[in-house]
Amino acid sequence: MISQEFIVKKVTQIVLHTIFWIVVLFCYTYFFGHNTNNINYVFSFSLFLIPVTMGTTYTVINLLIPKYLLQEKYFLFIVYCIYTVIISALFIILSLFYGLIFLSSLKFAGMAPMTRSPLFLFVAVYFVVFIASAFSLVQHNYKSTSANHELRNKILEAQLKLKEQELQYLKMQIHPHFLFNTLNTMYGFALKKSEQTPEMILMLSNLLDYLLYQVDKPLVSLHEEINHIKDYVALEKMRFSDTLKIDMKFENIPDTIQIAPMLFIPFVENSFKHGQIRNQKLTIVMKMIYINNEIHFSIKNSILNFSTDNHEYGIGLTNIKKRLSLLYPDNYKLEVTKNKEWYSVILILKL
């Protein structure tokens, strides 16, 4: 079924083309009417020349330009242009004989001066063809530019959706891991029937509230993220008891700073999960400071040897890097270093 929009477009196109050829007809009449008062002769001659001009013009703009020139088939375009010029030239000469035979009764002097020379006829016809062809090329260029712009927008939209899906997938990987660690800690306290279990449940409730209602937001307050880290560390302190030595510093953190949620907690989790007790202590040193519109975050944990849990640590670190690349492309710097005693991470985030 033909849509109304298509019908309106076609009708508009026909009207515009009709107006164009009416204007050309009057231009021919004015041009060929120079130095003559025989308007009937000039108008009839112009009316005969219009179909020749129309045929040549539409051959060029509807066939030669789109099929050969725009397809970069330049040799064929030149060849068929030559054919078109030859055929149209024959019809232009025929129009000259039409004026001589039928309009001036074989009296050469009776012809309008501008219609006696084939050169003037060629100039008139091919000038119109040139103008129409130039307009057609501009129109094709505009359509091509619009189509490319629309295609780029669709590609960007598809890439954005893909990145959003990948980001959601990475978040889903973080959530189970986080809950598993926390529930394991609670399970240990429940087995011991510790008096700290209710307090631990309350902290877990706060963490779950953050996890369920804040993590899906594009941005959260940096203070909320820090409170989330503090709650997590408090839970781990209960689990490790006297075997944990942790030093945390959060300096110069403005209230207005917002970041993507769950950016720093994976590093904290990894420190507890992969850190090892050395000299009867699991030692973790964490620092966050805001300087010149940048967040400088560092954390290191004690280890016993260089190769401990390299594979698991690598998987987690890969996911973190992917998430940072999606959220802060070219606006972060992540450094990971190891030695025999420490596993260190430094993250600089440009806001």
TrEMBL record:
Name under which the protein is recorded: Histidine kinase
Query: What InterPro entries does this protein map onto?
Result: Bact_2-comp_sensor_kinase, HATPase_C_sf, Sig_transdc_His_kin_internal
The record's PANTHER family line, in alphabetical order, gives: SENSOR HISTIDINE KINASE YPDA (PTHR34220:SF7)
- Which Gene Ontology cellular component annotation is one that this UniProt entry carries? membrane
Q: Where are the transmembrane segments?
A: 12-33, 39-65, 77-99, 119-138
Q: Which organism is it from?
A: Aquimarina mytili
Q: Which residues form a coiled coil?
A: 146-173
Keyword set for this entry? Answer: Coiled coil, Kinase, Membrane, Transferase, Transmembrane, Transmembrane helix
Which GO molecular function terms does the record list? phosphorelay sensor kinase activity
